[in-house]
């Protein structure tokens, strides 16, 4: 659970970005705060956006419906796990995937891999994000090849690694992706270190590892 003071600072940063007309923040606001849904980037940035709105955005990013719900969740944490210092805390990590067509990639992740589109940015879009549960993948459009030849497959250069908590879940996820027609570089197998993994290849050749316990 992130530190509440850090989240307050993050909300104030969103207010400043909105005031400065920083366009990428418009997509996040539209995707997560219901009353801005359906507005264009320009309309989002021209609309009123108060600190309470930014706090709601931060809460929804953390999986809560509102700022009070987020505060209550943090306050309910046992004292033994509550951060005691003001040291910076990394709240998460997001993989960056390079793709040729944002809309086509979003459609693939939604239809084949069970992700939802968090947002796209640009007209036409050149950046976006898809998410499934706590996994977030950022999609960045590129017009030239980023990797040389087939080096990704030869060296198994992974674009992202995602995990589940149980052996049953990794088996079920593999079966789901088989049924959806996902393109596998590697089917489900048990690794020497005890995990079970499989690797999916997206339409742009990005390699996505899914892993879980063997038992």
Q: How many E-type strands? A: 8
Structural class: alpha/beta
Q: Give the strand content.
A: 15-25%
Task: Determine Rg (CA atoms, Å).
Answer: 19 Å
Low-confidence stretches: none
Domain module tally = 3
Roughly how much helix do the residues carry, as a percent range? Answer: 25-40%
The major beta sheet can be summarized as:
4 strands, mixed
**In angstroms, what separates the terminal alpha carbons?**
28 Å
Strand order across the biggest sheet?
Answer: 1-4-3-2
Total helices: the number is: 8
Helix-strand pattern: HHHHHEHEEEHEHEEE
Backbone shape: globular
Overview of the structural elements:
The structure is a single chain. By secondary structure, the chain is α/β, with parallel strands linked by helices. The protein folds into three domains: 4-81, no CATH class; 95-141, 2,3-Dihydroxybiphenyl 1,2-Dioxygenase, domain 1 (Roll); 157-213, Signal recognition particle alu RNA binding heterodimer, srp9/1, CATH 3.30.720. The protein is 38% helix and 24% strand. The radius of gyration is 19 Å and the shape is globular.
Summary keywords:
215 residues, alpha/beta, 2,3-Dihydroxybiphenyl 1,2-Dioxygenase, domain 1, Signal recognition particle alu RNA binding heterodimer, srp9/1, 3 domains, 4-stranded mixed beta sheet, 8 helices, 38% helix, globular
Task: Briefly summarize what is shown.
With 215 residues, the protein is an alpha/beta fold. Helices cover 38% and strands 24% of the residues.
